[in-house]
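Internal ticket - ligand job 438, flavin-adenine dinucleotide:
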Amino acid sequence: MDVIVIGGGLTGVTTAYQLRAAGHRVCVIERHATVAQEASFGQGGLVLPTPLDVWFGPGLGFGMRQMLFGSRNGMIYQPGLSASARGFVRQLNLARDPERFAMQCGRLRPLVDLSRRTLAEMEARHAMDFEQRDGVLHLFRTPRELKQAAPALALLAQFDYPHQILDGETCRTIEPSVPPGEALAGGVFFPYERSANCPLFAKQIKTLLDEHDVEFALGRSAESIRVEAGRVVVELASRTDETSGARGGVESIAGDALVLAAGANTQTLLGQVGIRVPLYPARVHALTAPIGYEEHAPHVTVVDYESRVTISRLHNRMRFASAPLLQGRGKTARPTPPKLRRRAIDTLGQAGHTWVPGAAKLSAMREWDGIALMSPDGLPITGATTHPRLFVNAGHGPAGWGLACGTAKIVADLVSGRASDVDSDSLAALSPTRFQHG
Ligand SMILES: Cc1cc2nc3c(=O)[nH]c(=O)nc-3n(C[C@H](O)[C@H](O)[C@H](O)COP(=O)(O)OP(=O)(O)OC[C@H]3O[C@@H](n4cnc5c(N)ncnc54)[C@H](O)[C@@H]3O)c2cc1C
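stdout (structure tokens):
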């Protein structure tokens, strides 16, 4: 089949990889000059989520109280939150019920397993090096934080995530960069979880795809999509001639199937064919700096439980990421206002200062932000739509790095009409059509 993928972020690139591996002819349409330039660019690096990393459940504190009075959960709220943002938070808060949280984590688990296997196969087959680093250590300042995390800790055992629950002293043995004077009630260490360089991986996959005749329409924006009898058609925004300024004619690409992996733009394109999915955008922030003092740089990835800031070492750089900003949709499309940006950057800087002081060269710090698209039940939106030729792969929230490798495989199997690697309950829980029944 001829399959078109809109979006050359990590999700689009991994989807193209799996589609090509399944024998299809693939064209990826990406509006930037190369792949992984939006959410996949400066992200935190944590490869796969555990129940401690997800943005739903009892521990997160997405409540109205936190929004009105402020909180230390790392979330940045825009004062006077819009009705749409309040509505989204209300939906997300349904997962604060421990039973519902356990159910969603149970549905996520098969996807985590598939993603781990798929990524491992790709790494082994192509002998890939994309700055992988083993070991993730979540740190808890106070016994209260540990208590708050109890439902997630129970699920780590229930769903077989290899982990060790540690006291403060043992945490310092595992990660000697954590300063001795800092209050530390304990931690959870995941020896087999990893951080790695997401855009580097995406670019390596693109190089492989170039060698296997996958077409990349780079610098081209998909303006509209149509689903007709027997085929899908994508109209591209016309090009402007740089010297004369003249606009070219309308160009379109037709195929047998279309996968929307257009990140923050997915909803707009889906809306053109009358499909609504309740994805919500959050602007997430990151700081990157060269290693300051090697002896203070962490050996494992550190996550501050309270603020949810991920501190990862990517080769010779430190990355501090998270501080999601929740506000109205229209505002999220624009750059973060300076005051809120300062709060986000301070949140990241504070976590770094607390847990790995001296690790980063602050004078050379670069700020970055991107949009993470979240679904109200915390799971990605992956699978077939009500149009038989139209598929979606988006909404991975704060956990798209490794999960994109698994959702790519699911979509490729669905497009190819092959049996899926995950059970039918998990497929239904990821399906774009799940919100029509809820
Ligand atoms: C600061 C930050 C930190 C994060 N940290 C982590 C982490 O530690 N671990 C983790 O797992 N996840 C993390 N995430 C989330 C993760 O980065 C995302 O889930 C993932 O990158 C999403 O990939 P994507 O390909 O779906 O979206 P994107 O990377 O945004 O790609 C979408 C692509 O579609 C293209 N596009 C859109 N519309 C059109 C169009 N009309 N025509 C052509 N092209 C189009 C865009 O240009 C873009 O390249 C983080 C996100 C941010 C912002």
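Auto-summary: Residues 37 and 135 are 27 Å apart (CA to CA). The first strand starts at residue 2 and ends at 6.
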